[in-house]
Design brief:
By secondary structure, this protein is α/β, with parallel strands linked by helices. Helix content is 33%, strand content 18%. It is built from six helices and seven strands. The strands form two sheets. Strands 2-3-4-6-7 form a five-stranded parallel sheet. Strands 1-5 form a two-stranded antiparallel sheet.
Amino acid sequence: IPTWQCELRCVYCYIPKQDGRVMSLTTLERSIELLLTCEREELMLQFFGGEAMMEWDQVQHGIRYASDRAAVLGKSVRFVLSSNGWGLTPERLAWLQSYRVRLELSLDGEPEVQNLYRKARDSTESSYARSIADKAELLKNMDHEVIMVAPPVTASQIYQNFFHVVDCGYEQVQI
């Protein structure tokens, strides 16, 4: 968890949002070193949060550091980045793709549902408008899936929310 900060205030998120709480590079590197002590040759490092993309430099450092250290040890590390997608740009996606990072991206469905349960921290912003709803084309060459949270209150809308995500251009949806 590079940071506990996030642009969203999702109703069902269990991570307490704490501005300024950021993992130090020392802790990041020590965590990677601990991971690399595993006997397995193939390992996975997942960046989660808060919103990991808010600490982009740290995510890049962690991926480079883990890749380099794993190579020295004759191991390989695959990476997963969980994100709300707000910080995705073509440049960042190209960089992530060069390290074969798998993205787990959030979109809960239609705008009303997204905005109700994945509220923007800034109440003047639409969570849906900043979401990945219109980014499927950008992501077509990336390994990714969409995580769609369906709280019990929206269970009766699961069908239309699921197909909304699919209609946005996403083929892999985890509910």
